[in-house]
Every structure is written in structure tokens, then in C-alpha cells.
Amino acid sequence: MKLKLLFLILIVQFTSCGKNTYNGIDQMYYKKQIAEAHRIKTEEKITEEQPKKVATTEYLTYEEKENFAKTLNVPVDELENEKLYGTIKDWFGTPYLWGGTTKKGVDCSAFVQHVYSVVYNKDLPRTSQQQFDANLDVSFKNQKGLKNGDLIFFRLRHKEKVISHVGIYLQNGMFLGSNSPRGVEIANLNDAYWQDKYVSSARALLK
Fold first, then answer.
1. To which CATH superfamily is domain 62-203 assigned?
2. How far apart are CA 149 and CA 38, in angstroms?
3. Which residues are within 8 A (CB) of 96 and not within 5 positions of it... i.e. 6 or more apart?
4. What would the pLDDT profile of 83-140 be if each residue is shown by its tens digit?
5. d(CA 44, CA 93)
6. What mean pLDDT is predicted for residues 153-164?
7. pTM of the entire structure?
8. Distance (Å, rounded) from C-alpha 110 to C-alpha 100?
9. 166-194 confidence digits (pLDDT tens)
10. What is the overall mean pLDDT for the chain?
């Protein structure tokens, strides 16, 4: 009788332990599920609250930006009109060629005409004199008012009355042009050579 009673007690204890263990596993499982659902909900909320990123067009690598900034002597984040620099970067090294219009050789006005067409979607006449005579928005002589994209006109021979050279102002006193004999380059407008031959500037990008 005692043996039977002891056997029954053991059965009850094992059954109870098993039930408790099962309940413990159940509770842990559901706690984990609730915690995971809460984590996912929190992440979704954070994602919704973050501003959507607007796709931007990159014309230059950061290294290219650094190179241009160094040439212009300005901080990288102050580069103006990345599309302009992205357009002209492959032209450097192109030789100057009077009457030329391609990367095999290009003259000043053809190069300016090309840049304006690609970057600003604006058509300019073919020669520097024609560009000077064109009905541009604003013409001025004061170099302090120059802005990125302005045209700069020169008279390379003082005895001649015609405008014989044109470039595009960039920033910080630097301008872009196909200059003889070096070809396409960024030059310093403040150099004595260019100051001596400077005539005027024009802004053709107001409209």
C-alpha cells in the first residue's frame, strides 16, 4: 500500500513539473514574440519619421571636386555649378586650334559656344566678336561683379578693334578658356597679361 502511495506521489510530482516547465517555455516564447513585434514596430516608425532622400545628380567624384577646388583655391563645398565642371573636365588638354570645334583642337569661341549649349541650353553665335555683339542681358566692365558663367571678352592685339578672345568666368578670379598656345585651361584673370587685354564682360543667363 505504501509502495502504491509513493508511486502515485511521484507521478503527481513529475506531471506537475512537466506542466510548469511547459508553461515556462510557453511564457518565454510569447514574451520573445511580443518583444520582436515591438522592435519591428519601433523600426518602422523611425523609418517613416526620417525625411525621404531626394535623388541628386552627381557630375564629379569627390576627388575631382577636390582637384577643381584646389585649382580655384576655394573650399570643396563652395564649388559653384557642378554641371559646368563635369562638362569641361574631359576637355582639359585639348589643344588650341583656330577654327577648331572638336577635342582634336578647338578655338576659344567654339569652346564657349559648346559649354553654353550643354550646360545652360543657350545658343551663342560662333565667333568671339559675334558673341560680344549679341544682344546679351547685361554687359559691364567692372570685374568685381563677375559671377559664375559670365562671358569675358578680350582684345589680344591693341591695334585691332575686334574682340579676338572670349572665356567663361568661374569663381575666385579664375576663368575658363581655350587659350593659345596651351589650349583648354583654367587661367587667372588677375594676371597682368589678361588684365592688359580685358575689354568687358557680359551676363547671358538672366532669362
1. endopeptidase domain like (from Nostoc punctiforme) (3.90.1720.10)
2. 55
3. 105, 106, 107, 108, 178, 179, 180, 181, 182, 183, 184
4. 999 999 999 999 999 999 999 999 999 999 999 999 999 999 999 999 999 978 889 9
5. 52
6. 90
7. 0.72
8. 7
9. 999 999 999 999 999 999 999 999 999 99
10. 83
Q: Could you state, in order of their start, the residue ranges of all structural domains in the chain?
A: 62-203
Cell 578647338 sits on residue = 106
Report the amino acid identity of residue 26. Answer: D
